[in-house]
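Page 42, continued from yesterday. The earlier attempt failed because a stray header line got pasted into the input along with the sequence. Redoing it now with the clean sequence only.
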Amino acid sequence: IFSLLRNGVHQSGDFAINIEKTIDLWNSLSYGIFPVSWASLLNATYGYPLFIFTYPLPYYAISFFHLFGLSFIASEKIVIAMAFLLSGFFMYLLSRQYTSSRGASLATALYLFAPYHLVDMHYRVAIGELFAFAFVPFCFYSLKKNWAMLSIAVFLLLLSHQALSLVSLPLLFAFHFFTVRNLKQSLY
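This time it went through. Structure tokens are written below.
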């Protein structure tokens, strides 16, 4: 997270692009348009239906922090840090269901410092994937809790990144199927 404390925009894949998309979303929100579907300033000001086809949750989160007077750059950095910390928090909760606190801490550290996770955070700034990395463990964690929490977790995952949702949801169903089957076999 310390690398996010540098001033201004750092060289990365999508940092500036995310800000452009958020500015467009913010302009639509300031006109009272909700939910935003049309990105009117992008595509050489011809616009296109970006927010219908892309993940909207990260851009709404950046706009939320901008609402309090922060710049778009600072808001995006806060959202990146928040997604990183949430992914660690939810991974710890998930791991704690299956192991000790030391094992859960180790699993969390391995999850947070996985090279792909760090590349997404620092170089690619794939903000949708960062959000999905937070909500995938939340989905698996809430699977054992209750259906209301699971529905919220799946909803947040779907709004975070569609492609990772497409990959994660079958794994979630398979995990649920095998854990319920193993539980039924252990009861008999």
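Notes: DSSP finds nine helices and no strands in the chain.
Reminder to self: strip header lines before submitting.
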